[in-house]
């Protein structure tokens, strides 16, 4: 039975997921992960956000680089480049084993959620890690350079084209994972935490699935979102750039407006304490706390703070 559900994207979300795993009993945490970034590359199924969460939860993530496994080597990529293959998307030698095994199991008929569970157990992860859906959802970024698949925009073009909007292909017909929906409807659930992932690129594909959005909006447990914007800027990734290009002022007010009707609480960084007055009528409770997760202690502290915030809202949950 899940006591806490976390919705996570990649690096930032995975950090908080690891923090939650350190303070919540193993069997009581469910981490649901965005799959809008997934794509086929070199004949392999690549699931960047799932892998970021698996590596972070297993303590294998490369903290300095921010993605992939630590102690990585790059012999495969060097050989691929020598052969003039597609080397724009970096796959480390250790990381490659994950993609090869996943692709093999999927070809054998296993579901993505079953394979993810197998990988999690093999890595010694006790918390439940699930893809948001076993059905494909693909994030398409509408830019001035045309409609780009997520990895083309994010990695190959380094987020440079100006963005006009997003399309989450397949989300309208994708079935949110039934265990995730059951957890959100469980009266014993104590908290839902939307991790500090990009609201449009990482959380957006999850919320684009009607059943998941509806379950979140009607969830009896308090839903707390952690802002990925600190002092008007994203700590990692293009969230602030996207906001400007979409005509939004990068800041906590835009995050609150984006999640309006879905969350009961918004956790913002101490740097943005001056925003509290302006957020007084944003439709949810707002609390300040240190949200920059520079080490394991900071990750655990933020996890504790998010859960305490949710506990303070229990019984008063009612999305505006």
Write a concise synopsis of the structure shown.
The chain is 36% helix and 18% strand. The protein has helices spanning 11-23, 48-57, 75-82, 93-107, 112-122, 150-156, 178-185, 204-207, 210-217, 239-245, 252-258, 296-313, and strands at 4-8, 29-33, 39-41, 44-46, 128-131, 138-143, 146-149, 163-169, 191-194, 223-226, 229-230, 233-234, 265-269, 285-289.
Rg over alpha carbons = 19 Å
Domain count, please report it. Answer: 1
- Mean pLDDT, to the nearest integer, reads 95
Order of strands across the main sheet: 5-2-1-9-10-13-14
Number of strands: 14
Q: CATH superfamily name?
A: CofD-like domains
CATH class reads: Alpha Beta
Keywords:
12 helices, alpha/beta, 320 residues, seven-stranded parallel beta sheet, globular, three-stranded antiparallel beta sheet, Rossmann fold
Question: What can you see in these coordinates?
Answer:
With 320 residues, the protein is of the alpha/beta class. It has a single domain, classed as Rossmann fold (3-Layer(aba) Sandwich). The protein has helices at residues 11-23, 48-57, 75-82, 93-107, 112-122, 150-156, 178-185, 204-207, 210-217, 239-245, 252-258, 296-313, and strands spanning 4-8, 29-33, 39-41, 44-46, 128-131, 138-143, 146-149, 163-169, 191-194, 223-226, 229-230, 233-234, 265-269, 285-289. The strands form four sheets. Strands 5-2-1-9-10-13-14 form a seven-stranded parallel beta sheet, sandwiched between helices. The chain has a three-stranded antiparallel beta sheet with strand order 7-6-8. A two-stranded antiparallel ribbon has the order 3-4. Strand 11 and strand 12 (233-234) form a beta hairpin. The radius of gyration is 19 Å and the shape is globular. The model has no long low-confidence stretch (mean pLDDT 95).
């Amino acid at each position: 039975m899940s006591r806490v559900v976390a919705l996570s994207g990649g690096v930032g979300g995975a950090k908080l997921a690891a923090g939650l795993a350190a303070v919540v009993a193993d069997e009581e945490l469910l981490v649901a992960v965005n799959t809008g970034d997934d794509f086929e590359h070199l004949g392999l199924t690549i699931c960047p956000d799932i892998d970021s969460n698996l590596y972070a939860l297993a303590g294998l993530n490369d903290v300095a680089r921010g993605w992939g496994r630590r102690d990585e080597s790059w012999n495969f990529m060097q050989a691929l480049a020598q052969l003039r293959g597609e080397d724009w998307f970096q796959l480390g030698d250790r990381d490659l084993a994950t993609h090869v095994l996943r692709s093999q199991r999927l070809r054998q008929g296993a579901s993505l959620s079953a394979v993810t569970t197998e990988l999690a157990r093999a890595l010694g992860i006790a918390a439940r890690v699930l893809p948001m859906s076993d059905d494909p959802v693909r994030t398409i970024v509408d830019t001035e350079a045309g409609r780009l698949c997520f990895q083309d925009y994010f990695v190959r073009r380094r987020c440079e084209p100006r963005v006009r909007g997003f399309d989450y292909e397949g989300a309208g017909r994708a079935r949110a994972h039934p265990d995730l929906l059951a957890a959100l409807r469980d009266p014993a659930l104590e908290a839902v935490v939307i991790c500090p992932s990009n609201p449009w690129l990482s959380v957006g594909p999850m919320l684009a699935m009607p059943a998941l959005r509806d379950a979140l909006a009607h969830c009896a447990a308090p839903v707390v979102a952690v802002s990925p914007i600190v002092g008007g800027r994203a700590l990692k990734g293009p969230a602030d750039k996207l906001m400007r290009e979409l005509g939004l002022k990068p800041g906590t007010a835009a995050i609150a407006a984006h999640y309006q009707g879905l969350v009961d609480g918004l956790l913002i960084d101490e740097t943005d304490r001056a925003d509290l007055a302006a957020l007084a009528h944003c439709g949810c409770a707002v609390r300040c706390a240190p949200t920059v997760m520079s080490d394991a202690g900071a990750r655990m502290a933020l996890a504790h703070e998010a859960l305490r915030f949710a506990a303070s809202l229990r019984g008063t949950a009612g999305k505006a």
